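Structure ticket #2291
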Amino acid sequence: MPERTSNPRCPIRIGEPCTLCFPGARGPQDCGLVYLVQSDPELREELAARRRERHRTRVR
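Resolution: structure written out below.
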């Protein structure tokens, strides 16, 4: 059976693949940018609002 390759998505750049833009990152799980956004309440809420908006536009 062929192995499946995982292509992680960037949780910050919605809908785009993880391009390992943060030096030393091996994926979203250890990305400093993701950590910074998730640890800041205002940025986290802004990201959530953008995800909701994207979901609304895709569902229609």
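Closing remark: The CA atoms of residues 43 and 59 lie 24 Å apart.
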